[in-house]
Structure prediction request, 476 residues.
Amino acid sequence: MKKNCFSFLILFFLNFLFWGQEIQFRYNGGRNYTLVERTDLRRYENNRYVGLLSREIRSFISNYGDLYEGSFYVSQDTVRASLSVADQIHDSIPSKFRISDDGKLTMIEDYGYPTFRSFPAFSANRIKHGDSWQAKAERAVDPLNKGIVTKIPMYVQYTYTGDENVRGEDVYVLTAKWATRYGQNIYMDFGGDKELKQAMGSHNATMYVSKVTGNAIVVRDSVDETFVYNDGKAVTFKGTISLFTEYPPAVDRSKIIRALQRVAAIDGDEAKLLAQVATKTDGAQSKAGSKDADVAKLSSGAQSSRDARSTAYSQSKPGSQKSASSKPSAESISKAVAAVSKSLSDQAIAAASKPIKVENTTAGIRLTIQNLQFKPDSAELVSGESSRLDQIASVLREVPESQFLVEGHTAATGNETGEMRLSALRAHKIAKELSKRGIPQEKFICKGSGAHKPVADNSTPAGKAVNRRVEITILE
Prediction:
């Protein structure tokens, strides 16, 4: 009896210590990830059931220190009468944002995604099991899919309820509750849908937050909210919104190296550098700077560029030319800048002689098809490009579990809108051609960047030819 009583006291004491332990929640990030938002909501219009809204929004988000850059896309849309939208090539919706260590998200480039911002947000104080705190968040909504995003503030009450292990990762378990309140007497987003008069409702969520990164690994939100429009239409949604953080599969870089060597896409030095990267850890907690260094090493002609800069600088230094002046002249500085610019442009043009250029970037291994031959102002390829597409497809088949970001680029013509549209069409064209060579369509995310990211001088025909390119990143 005494032994049982003693054991009970020890267990009580241990539980007291455990439950009394204070913890500081922080958002650390530091790794590329995929964010998935899955919506399963029953939709009512003026209290009449009209169908089930089932939509999945996916994204690949790259980490550049405290800056995050995402490519979002809708992979499924409204489901009704058991009919679903088939998988196809996806269009990228860009996003850029920052996240502070307390979880606050600040949008830099905002096209409506992510829909939940600053969620979860953490207390500035150390907390223990059972403690609660409040924090402001924001949600971007477009209930009628009009293409007009309205931002609604969220005042969330969080409670730290326990600890678990989800999919092999240690997590904090939190509950979150908030009410939807939007309207003329409460809050109005004057940049949002002007026809949206009022919104009200309730949310009750359970979330599992990674102890390592501070990412919400899983969020399950029970929703009951109504949106009222100026014409009297009331749209109600009831059901669940689920958020998942997933990590892309590790890429077997040795396979990529072998595939690239088979198609003579890289030289020996590039293969060695990729092999060195392959021996590193997966970099879950590494900083973006180390990857940037790899990018610099893998860029064709990087050393010659440094040599050109060094030579240009030395020529502009006092005493390098027989001059009484103690400062470099404006003319010498101008010549130095011109020398560097010409060197960089010449390197880019020379790199076009390679069938495929390869670089290691923050988002993953990037393959570039340079100097692509499209018909003028068209996404139609001229004859002769089939071989390079065959080579690219042979590389992508080595990583069947990965997704691929296909980014189109054009030369500068002065028509920015036309350039953006044409670059997106060309990205789609390449994705379709690769899908004919055995790569599933749903693996591709397409993005058009127009002439915003030149790699050579657009004032020369040779430079423009190099700028007309398509880049394919194996996301990891």
